[in-house]
Amino acid sequence: MKLWTEWEITRRQVAIGGRVTDENNSRVDGARIKITSMPDEFRRKVGIAEDAAVSGPESALAGPDGIFYFLDLPGGQYTLTAIDPGSGRHDEKKISVSRDKKGSIKMTQAEFTIHA
């Protein structure tokens, strides 16, 4: 066990962040954002079989302001789907996550609009 003086600070980085709104630009509180397609590195990291349904660290809920985020994702191509909990309507985006020369994640924005 480490002594408290040996603890190190872990810094988390937002890889994908964004907002879910409706066609009137009003926030969608509680929208579920799911990663439905991901790089193999992330699939292995969270222990998801190639043909398994996706749930867990690969999903997020939008807050009352419609804002959501995913932390510390490996680089690569992702497909995200935002789902309105009330209507079941959804919007889908393809997103790319990358890192700079120092290895820091370059945050990618994903704006979803769910139409009635």
Q: How would you explain this protein's 3D organization?
A:
- By secondary structure, the chain is mainly beta.
- The protein has a single domain, classed as Carboxypeptidase-like, regulatory domain (Immunoglobulin-like).
- Helices cover 5% and strands 43% of the residues.
- It is built from 1 helix and 8 strands, in the order E-E-H-E-E-E-E-E-E.
- The relative contact order is 0.30.
- The model has no long low-confidence stretch (mean pLDDT 86).
List keywords for this structure.
five-stranded antiparallel beta sheet, Immunoglobulin-like, mainly beta, 116 residues
What is this structure, in a nutshell?
5% of the residues lie in helices and 43% in strands.
Q: Can you tell me the number of structural domains? A: 1
Instruction: Count every helix, treating DSSP H or I runs of 4 or more residues as helices.
Output: 1
Q: How many strands, which pairing sense, and closed or not: the largest β-sheet?
A: 5 strands, antiparallel
Give the DSSP E fraction (strand runs of 2 or more residues): 35-45%
Please identify the structural class as seen in this structure. mainly beta
Low-pLDDT regions: none
Radius of gyration: 16 Å
Terminal residue distance: 54 Å
How do the SSEs run, as a string of H and E? EEHEEEEEE
Query: What would the CATH topology be?
Result: Immunoglobulin-like
Can you count the beta strands? 8
Helicity range of the residues?
under 10%
Average pLDDT confidence is: 86
Can you tell me the CATH superfamily? Carboxypeptidase-like, regulatory domain
Overall 3D form: globular
By CATH, the architecture is named Sandwich
* Arrangement of strands in the largest sheet: 3-2-5-6-7
CATH class call: Mainly Beta
